[in-house]
Amino acid sequence: MKIAVVGTGYVGLVTGTCFADSGNEVICIDKDEAKIAVLEKGKIPIYEPGLLEMVHRNSRDGRLVFTTDLQKGIQASDLVFIAVGTPQSETGAADLSTVFAVAKSIALAANNTKIVIIKSTVPVGTNKKVQDIVNANSKFPIHICSNPEFLKEGAAIEDCTKPDRVVIGIRSPELSEIFKELYAPFLRTERPLLIMSPESAEMTKYAANAMLATKISFINEMSNICEKMGGDINDVRRGIGHDIRIGFQFLFPGAGYGGSCFPKDIRALIHMANEIGIAPTMLAAIDVVNELQKELLFSKIHDHFKGNIKGLTFGIWGLAFKPRTDDIREAPALVLIDALLNAGAKVQVHDPEAMPNVNAIYGDKLSYCSKPYDALQGANALAIVTEWQEFRNPNFQFMAGLLKENVIFDGRNLYEPKVLSTVGFTYYSIGRKTAFPSS
Ligand SMILES: NC(=O)c1ccc[n+]([C@@H]2O[C@H](COP(=O)([O-])OP(=O)(O)OC[C@H]3O[C@@H](n4cnc5c(N)ncnc54)[C@H](O)[C@@H]3O)[C@@H](O)[C@H]2O)c1
């Protein structure tokens, strides 16, 4: 198939590349000239495991090309995916201005019948609005379909090529054959392609993210109660997770969720509900719990140092909103950094992939350490915000030699409190009793 993808960000680049990898001819379009120039040089502007090799191979074989020329890309394609951003606007609603502008440009550029698929996360009713826009601007029939994306950054290729399910929102049943053909290489293990109305498809994406965010805020609230009552949230997690109605997935306590999706999608859903007169009581609570959770590490630091933080130095491990990505949008680490800087502390950070993005925001307000242990040198304490695999088994003796005080504030429960106690650390974690040096 001949496919154009408009918006070559995390979603557009991954899905475009995966479609090319299954034999389609794909043109990835972006208005960002610098991004396209990087891609044309055989590099990628983001960190996503496995993506570089896949982009390289498909570009080399001529199935994947990049351009800023929207008209050329649209005219050469039959299927056009819209994968541009839908950020949070001031009201909390999803900002659809780019989706609408791109839809109009596609309609004006169309040289024959096109199937346009909205992959961006958009509120219920957007498909209909986009259909009206293209109808008013195109000389040719354009079918607007919805195909929300469920990939996770850090595992995006796996999610894209082996999805749990593919959701397609269409008005004309005959269009389903095209999607069955397009997705067949990814659904060979009998995962379903679910055909529904565009409105249901749009709502499915928000409902999925709301459910996942609910699980995170739920376990975080449980962990805060548990910690104060003297329980251990890891034991409680096991205790509930073995109930197959509950399960273990997405029930890890932490420093709050971030990223480009959950925070803005929950708020967009709250906005949608308010607009139609439904009080989104539960959704609002998910967001509030999460915002408070992002402040928890600083509050533990504040209490430990009895408010005397000015002039102290803190090492931070993990800046990305989750491991295996360089994405720092709404990352809990940024909340901690802001609080520490405001309190007059010096901050030394390490992240395997996200430091350039953090540097672009904070510049010389932070010290950037290319190795994890360098962030501990002369620091009063270490805070861990992202659970990169390489932080799980460090050399605690060596760390003790670098830190001024043996204190760790762990926002991801990477270590066993008893072990930390034996190696002489004061160890704060989430939903568990603080461990103190045993000798
Ligand atoms: N990132 C994720 O993990 C994820 C997962 C599922 C769904 N989504 C949804 O997918 C959408 C895209 O997310 P993303 O993270 O890939 O965003 P992104 O910000 O990484 O990428 C968006 C891209 O669109 C480009 N763009 C903006 N205006 C354009 C225009 N007029 N013409 C051409 N290109 C244009 C930008 O330059 C950018 O490269 C959002 O709606 C998001 O909610 C994201």
Mind explaining what this structure looks like?
This protein has three domains: 2-196, Rossmann fold (3-Layer(aba) Sandwich); 205-292, Orthogonal Bundle (N-(1-d-carboxylethyl)-l-norvaline Dehydrogenase, domain 2), CATH 1.10.1040; 295-428, Rossmann fold (3-Layer(aba) Sandwich), CATH 3.40.50. It is 42% helix and 13% strand. The chain contains 17 helices and 14 strands. The strands form three sheets. The chain has a six-stranded parallel sheet, sandwiched between helices. Strands 11-10-9-12-13-14 form a six-stranded parallel sheet. Strands 7-8 form a two-stranded parallel sheet. Strand 13, helix 17 (417-422) and strand 14 (426-428) form a beta-alpha-beta unit. Helix 5 runs parallel beside helix 6 and helix 9 (198-229) packs across helix 12. The longest helix has 32 residues, at 198-229. The structure holds nicotinamide-adenine-dinucleotide. Residues 6-12, 29-32, 35, 83-86, 98, 101-102, 120-121, 149, 151, 153, 260-261 line the site of nicotinamide-adenine-dinucleotide. Nicotinamide-adenine-dinucleotide binds next to helix 1 and helix 5.
